[in-house]
Design a protein that fits this description.
The complex is a heterodimer.
Chain A: H1 8-20, H2 28-33, H3 48-58, E1 62-66, H4 71-79, E2 85-88, E3 101-102, E4 111-115, E5 118-120, E6 125-129, H5 135-139, E7 143-149, E8 153-154, H6 157-162, E9 170-174, E10 179-180, E11 188-189, E12 196-202
Parallel strand pairs in A: 1-12, 2-3, 2-4, 4-7, 5-8, 7-12
Antiparallel strand pairs in A: 5-6, 6-9, 10-11
Chain B: H1 7-15, H2 18-40, H3 45-61, H4 63-76, E1 80-84, H5 87-100, E2 105-108, H6 112-116, H7 119-125, E3 129-132, H8 135-143, H9 159-169, H10 180-197, E4 200-203, E5 207-209, E6 214-219, H11 223-229, E7 233-239, E8 243-244, H12 247-261, E9 269-273, E10 287-293, H13 297-301, H14 316-319, H15 322-327, H16 338-349, H17 366-370, H18 377-391, H19 396-409, H20 412-429, E11 435-436, H21 443-446, E12 451-452, H22 459-476
Parallel strand pairs in B: 1-10, 2-3, 2-4, 4-7, 5-8, 7-10
Antiparallel strand pairs in B: 5-6, 6-9, 11-12
Classes of the chains: A alpha/beta, B alpha/beta.
Protein name (chain A): LUD domain-containing protein
Pfam families (chain A): LUD_dom (PF02589)
InterPro entries (chain A): FTHF_cligase-like_sf, LUD_dom, NagB/RpiA_transferase-like
């Protein structure tokens, strides 16, 4: 085992400790619980669904209400152009997709249909983990269609972290279509990711949709 | 052609560059107005700033503990943390990983640490082909220029200049590139192929989360995610000061980051990467590396400039800086321009000419006013000026003038008399137009603006009169 000053790691951590006065054997959890935040909390969000709608629309998301999940396949063709190649989330495979041209290859699909793992009211945001959805499906398609079951909507980001959405090698918060303002500060939708983001709000609060992962 | 050596010479060139001035004019209103609108819509914004500042303080106070936790968690997930004391170390580590992966092509997301280490040049010299994927970074890669802004790297380019770069770089025949839409679509098509074929993806990180060994990345284009998730190897180049303890802490930073940077409540994409693809997951890289750069940051941590490490790289300070707005980022001759760069650049690299940077400020205070984590930027610049006075004696003329001003400022009666006389002279000269078009010895200044003629008496005189009047009224009562 090389001594601390033999490695860049040892030297950097040594200099940091000299500056901060931290002991060498500090336990992370113990240290963090000993210094909780003393700042004021943010105001409560009284109407999460209303807040989500307002924020999502502000982010350029197209919003629709979905009374029941099977209705998705009937409504979708009215929102999309014809002759679209569609890739879908495995968790939605049981729906009737007979009216669509399907593909398993996300690089070939022009539309992706996915089920959101969570929603955040404060910013009109959807959460996906790559336990359930391939990152490629979220970013390579031209049109992304997401179903958000309202039972999975929370007020703030922290509520999703408390619910354990942090344990996947990729967690994506998606808050609108892809955009850029890199040329003359002019906002253009559709930089590298989806040009459209359509979100179906599924009211499953009486009987929550099973989380099937 | 190399840039002139001094800030003042470069600033002169920038002020005379009409294309640059036209690009800067668009950015000025864009960023400032968008931020103002976003903040007006958020009544809790001041609380959000306090929370974010506290997270940064707590992170740095427990930095070694957080970093050890971070490394342990990355290892547990099957990834690897590398420690780079210098930018040389960072370049070598990244090239070694690419060579071990047998890589030829590399897609890159925006990384300011990558820019700080001039990583693209090093990759090219090692026989690799780096492809920038962020539109702004791609534009400046084609132009062979450094970024001029930490959020919008190609802010200094007009759409016509971008169209010309695209015509030179993409053999796509005759086409209309007059609209921004056409430029964005063309870049999308060209870069899409690269996402799908690259061997290695290199991104930066906006934050590192200690508790789970996670790197968080904020983008609007989605290029960061495609760079991170499609190639077999993902390398993150960042500096250790990006770490925060928990996911809750990260949320507190995100709340102020996009609002301050682009005036959005949140960017289109905020993504969290914790190691390579795990069993049962849908996709992701096979290997995952985080390279942590020091490059003098441990010295900053141990100095009176520690608060500079609170910076979350939103760019609000430069967007609101009258100096940056006038001369643009390249005038600072550093990848970190504007007020944050005027503090950070001298501390990170300590070039002799960096002493000029903290002097390129009128101390108007707007940078501190808009900084989401309340870094006292003018105060830090003042400390750097003081340090310069002690370490590097300024030129004889500057010293004599400062000494003369110091002598005068300690003699209030004489000071009031002379400033009063000066005010009267200027008011008389500028009486007809209300402003002075030119001044002796200050033609460089008046070439670009007029000096408003003084109106009435000095502040001290009016204050004294108001006090006397108030006393008189109290006496009457």
């Amino acid at each position: 085992m090389p001594s601390n000053s033999d490695t860049a790691r040892g030297r950097i951590l040594g200099r940091i400790r000299a500056a901060t006065g931290e002991a060498a054997s500090h336990n992370f959890a113990a240290v963090m619980s000993s210094c909780p935040s003393r700042e004021r909390a943010l105001a409560a969000i009284d109407d999460p669904v209303g807040e989500f709608r307002e924020r999502a629309l502000g982010n350029g998301i197209e919003l629709f209400d979905l009374p029941a999940l099977p209705g998705l396949c009937a409504d979708l063709p009215t929102r999309l152009a014809d002759a679209i190649k569609l890739a879908r989330d495995g968790r939605l495979a049981h729906l009737d997709w007979s009216a669509f041209q399907l593909t398993e290859d996300t690089t070939d699909a022009s539309c992706g249909v996915v089920l959101a793992d969570g929603g955040i009211a404060e910013t009109g945001t959807l959460l996906f983990t790559n336990r359930s959805v391939a990152s490629g499906l979220l970013f390579l398609v031209d049109h992304l269609v997401a179903v958000l079951p309202l039972s999975r909507l929370v007020c703030r980001q922290e509520d999703l972290w408390k619910a354990g959405h942090c344990n996947a090698s990729a967690v994506h918060l998606v808050s609108g279509p892809s955009r850029t303002a890199d040329v003359e500060q002019t906002i253009q939708i559709g930089a590298h990711g989806p040009r459209r983001l359509l979100v179906y709000l599924l009211d499953d609060r009486a009987q929550p949709l099973e989380m099937d992962r | 052609m190399s840039a002139p050596q001094t800030f003042i010479a470069r600033a002169g060139g920038a002020l005379d560059d009409s294309q640059l001035q036209s690009a800067l004019a668009k950015a000025r209103s864009g960023f400032v107005d968008k931020r103002a609108t976003a903040i007006a819509a958020e009544p809790d914004f001041e609380t959000m700033r306090d929370q974010a500042r506290e997270v940064r303080q707590r992170s740095l106070a427990n930095l070694a503990t957080c970093l050890e936790q971070f490394e342990q968690q990355v290892n547990a997930a099957g990834g690897q943390v590398h420690w780079a004391e210098s930018t040389d170390d960072l370049r070598r580590i990244v090239i070694d990983i690419c060579e071990q992966a047998g890589a030829k092509t590399v897609t890159k997301g925006k990384s300011m640490v990558g820019e700080e280490a001039a990583l693209n040049e090093a990759l090219e010299q090692a026989g690799l082909t780096p492809w920038e994927t962020d539109l702004g970074e791609y534009i400046i890669q084609l132009a062979h220029e450094p970024p001029s802004h930490i959020v919008a790297p190609a802010l200094h380019k007009t759409r016509d200049q971008v169209a010309e770069l695209f015509r030179d770089a993409h053999a796509l025949g005759e086409r209309d590139l007059g609209e921004v839409r056409a430029l964005v679509d063309e870049a999308r098509a060209v870069i899409r192929e690269r996402f799908l074929s690259a061997d290695v993806g290199i991104t930066g990180a906006n934050l590192l989360i200690a508790e789970t060994g996670t790197a968080a990345l904020v983008t609007n284009e989605g290029n960061g995610d495609l760079t991170a998730r499609l190639p077999r190897t993902h390398i993150i180049t960042t500096s250790f000061d990006r770490v925060v303890p928990t996911w809750e802490d990260a949320s507190k930073i995100f709340r102020v980051l996009a609002r301050s940077a682009t005036g959005q409540p949140i960017t289109a994409y905020t993504s969290f990467f914790s190691g390579p693809r795990a069993e049962g997951e849908q996709d992701g890289p096979e290997s995952f590396h985080v390279v942590l750069l020091d490059n003098h940051r441990t010295e900053i941590l141990d100095s009176e400039f520690r608060e500079m490490l609170h910076c979350i790289r939103c760019g609000a300070c430069m967007n609101h800086c009258p100096v940056y707005q006038s001369v643009g980022g390249h005038t600072y001759d550093s990848v970190y321009p504007g007020p944050m760069g005027a503090v950070l650049s001298p501390l990170l690299r300590g070039y002799a000419q960096d002493d000029e940077l903290p002097n390129a400020s009128s101390f108007c205070g707007r940078c501190e006013e808009v900084c989401p984590v309340r870094i006292p930027l003018p105060g830090l610049m003042r400390k750097l000026r003081e340090r310069e006075m002690v370490q590097e004696k300024p030129p004889w003329l500057t010293r004599r003038m400062l000494a003369a001003f110091g002598w005068l400022a300690q003699r209030p009666v004489l000071y009031r008399y002379l400033t009063g006389a000066g005010t009267r002279v200027l008011a008389t000269l500028g009486r007809r137009r209300g402003a002075l078009r030119s001044l002796p010895l200050a033609s460089a200044w008046t070439a670009h603006r007029d000096l408003p003629a003084p109106q009435g008496a000095s502040f001290q005189l009016r204050w004294a009169r108001a006090q006397r009047k108030a006393e008189g009224e109290r006496g009457d009562a």
